[in-house]
Amino acid sequence: MGANVSSPEQRFQVTNFRSRKPWTPQPEIYPFNVNSPRIVEIKNMNQWKSRLNALNDTNRLLVIEFTAKWCGPCKSLEPELEELAAKYTDAEFVKIDVDVLMSVWMEYNLNTLPAIVFMKRGREVDRVVGVKVDEVERKLHKYTQSFF
């Protein structure tokens, strides 16, 4: 009837807590690759404009993830987007930190994070706000298959 103990010898074992190593803080470990080669992090306005202009004349889908370092839901969405970026290689994925490029976030009239904006030929075709992975994948499938 001992709680969580498998043998009588283990029930009466005494643990010396003083001999343990002192606790030291560990760096924060994320379950995803921060510097993903599949999702390009846009770090300044020039980089954003050149990426946007390069895709204006193509039929390639641009998937813009608006995120922030302090946003918990954004962090939970990140590994899912990594998988989708690996699956939908014909789309281009970029990530914009709203604290770094607030003007781009405001240009799209967004007020909730995370937000995913889908663009084709220089114009917005759709968006998903919140952690809705199934909806993001449906829209990815839809817009990577279309040729408008």
Automatic annotation (TrEMBL):
Q: Which Pfam families match?
A: Thioredoxin
InterPro entries the UniProt entry points to: Thioredoxin-like_sf, Thioredoxin_CS, Thioredoxin_domain, Thioredoxin_H-type-like
The family database entries (Gene3D superfamilies) matched by this protein are listed as: Glutaredoxin (3.40.30.10)
- Cite the Thioredoxin domain residue spans from the record: 20-145
Matches recorded under PROSITE patterns: THIOREDOXIN_1 (PS00194), THIOREDOXIN_2 (PS51352)
Question: Matching CDD domains, A to Z?
Answer: TRX_family
Q: Which domain of life is it from?
A: Eukaryota
Write down what this protein is called.
Answer: Thioredoxin H-type 8
Q: Which species does the entry assign this protein to?
A: Arabidopsis lyrata subsp. lyrata
Q: Which gene encodes it?
A: ATH8
